Amino acid sequence: MSATKTALAFSVVGLLVVPSARAETILYNTFGPGDAVSTAAAFFGFERGEEGGPDFLFARAFPFVPNATATLTSLDMPLEFPFSFTQGTLQVNVYASSGGLPTTLLENFAGDSSQTGRGTFRFDSALHPLLEAGTTYFVEATVTGVADGLWFLSNTSPGIVPDVLRIDNGPFQIAGGTRDFQTAFRVNGNLAATPEPATLLLLLTGTALGARGTRRLRSRDVH
Question: Mean pLDDT over all residues of the chain?
Fold first, then answer.
């Protein structure tokens, strides 16, 4: 086998036996110690109009800023679903943002039949969108159909954030007045892969051997 082929084979074997480093981490978290949350909650979902007003769908979204660049793996949210109306499906969405409001939909999570009652619901990502450190994103809780739920508030909020909402799947807006609060949720992700030192060494060695083999072949062709 030529030196070039040997070097390439050596590099490929190195990549197969030495995996890249990937570690799941918490990118954002407003849970308290032991996953504690406030007993107060934000309402979302189908709402029957008061005093003869029209019925409508009410959705809430709250911002988060990842502490590292990573691909999304899951969300953890303390919810009660359904709360009163029950003929519908839980929906959770993750958005990019612009101007302090959600914009591009990055992933949609539909709740399954086991996600009922009160507790911490986990939503596993299928698309694994890349979330960049220092960039603002939004998590939205909403429903399809005639159902509603509660999203429990953080008892250790890192700061008060505006109440972003939308009505009947219309444009997002910031609620007026002073009703500002923070819901509890956790964003988990896989850090961007970085080659292990052993992998880098094998790649560099293979490249060097390949270069030497190429030079020898060229020298042999000249003579």
Answer: 82
Helix (H, G, I), strand (E, B) or coil at 111: coil
The residues near 18 (Cβ < 8 Å, ≥ 6 apart) are: 196, 198, 199, 202
Residues of the chain with pLDDT under 70: 1-22, 51-52, 157-158, 177-179, 192-223
3-state secondary structure at position 204: helix
Identify the residue whose tokens are 């499906």.
89
Q: How far is CA 145 from the centre of its chain?
A: 25
CA-to-CA separations, 100 to 63, 160, 173, in angstroms, rounded: 9, 14, 9
- How far apart are alpha carbons 82 and 115 in whole angstroms? 9
How far CA 105 is from CA of 65, 94, 129, 132, in Å, comes to: 16, 6, 10, 15
Residue type, 210: G
Structure tokens at 34: 């032991």
SS3 content of the chain, % helix, strand, coil (to 5): 20, 45, 35
Q: Are 20 and 194 in contact (CB under 8 A)?
A: yes
CATH of domain 24-191: 2.60.120
pLDDT at 217: 44
